[in-house]
Amino acid sequence: MHLPPSAHEKWFVPDPGRYPGHWSFFWQPATLIACGVAVAFVVGWRLVALRLPRPELEVLNRLDRLVPWIPRLLAIHLGVSLLALAVHDQYLSPALSLTHVTAGSEIALTEGIVGVWLISGIKLRPAAILVILLGPLALVLAGPVAVLEAADLLGLALFLLILPGNPDGRVANRVDPMIVRRAMFALRICVGSSLIVLAVSEKLANPGLAHAFIKRYPPLDLFTTAGLHLGPNAFIRFAGAAELAFGLLIISGAAPQLVAIVAGIPFNATLFYFGRTELIGHLPVYGAMLALLVYGSSPRIAPFLWSPRRNKRLPWRRVERMARSGRFAEG
Predict the structure, then answer these.
(1) How far apart are CA 84 and CA 254, in angstroms?
(2) Residue 172 region, left (φ>0) first, then alpha (ψ -120 to 50), else beta?
(3) How far apart, in whole angstroms, are the C-alpha atoms of residue 257 and residue 253?
(4) pTM of the model
(5) How far is CA 204 from CA 104, 143, 257, in A?
(6) Mean pLDDT for each consecutive 10-residue tract of the chain (331 residues)?
(7) Are the C-beta atoms of residues 250 and 259 closer than 8 Å to each other?
């Protein structure tokens, strides 16, 4: 089984703190070129996406039926993630252990209670605020990098703060697409930023940790496995640049259906290799991909999702007026 470049080394390398970052690797010409290619790819993706219809894959338009349920489903993703982490004495990430932390059991209990609250679907906005308030403690326990690495949880919490849904967990069919746009903007920024930080903190600026990961799981160096003996540094650069590209693609929001499908392949493939830890750690990302796919498949919402759509058929200003007047709403 080959592992795509989306697994997080800190979850699977013992005592990752032994491997401090080295920015000298990031500033090497080969690394900068790899990052430049990733950025250029994302810019090209966005330019091409501007010419695509919205939704870009009409075959998926029936997913529009799931629009009322997205806040409820994201709350479940976030709640299950927090509850599972709490059960295993982990805080916001599989990499942050509470085993030797003062009052660790109480912290895990609080985390688990918030998770159960989110799963229940009752009054999701206060629950989302509590998730946001969990962040400062992580800052004290593990520092700013660890908090940024877990920004995907913040993204789901901000989404639920902006668009919490009805008491039964659904959002009214006549939801304003501009509110969805704001909620998805917060979600995309946080989830994409988390992936970018991970690309740097675990790979591009921490080759020692990446080397330890490859040494522990040698078949996962896809280049060597494929018979390309380019050395581990080449794969580290490739994996970091790929994760950087995924983060930037999510932030851009361009062609959301295609982004969800393309990015979903490596994130799902890792489940067969690392199982529960990978599933729990990536649940917020799976939720973000689901939201991108469903909202990007909605003819009522897709034109608003990531940038003004200016075309001859439906000018942007007219689309915005139609949305605010409810003409895009379902019967």
Answers:
(1) 32
(2) beta
(3) 9
(4) 0.84
(5) 32, 19, 28
(6) 44 62 88 96 94 91 91 94 91 83 91 95 93 90 85 95 73 75 95 93 85 73 71 86 94 94 79 69 89 93 75 47 48 29
(7) yes
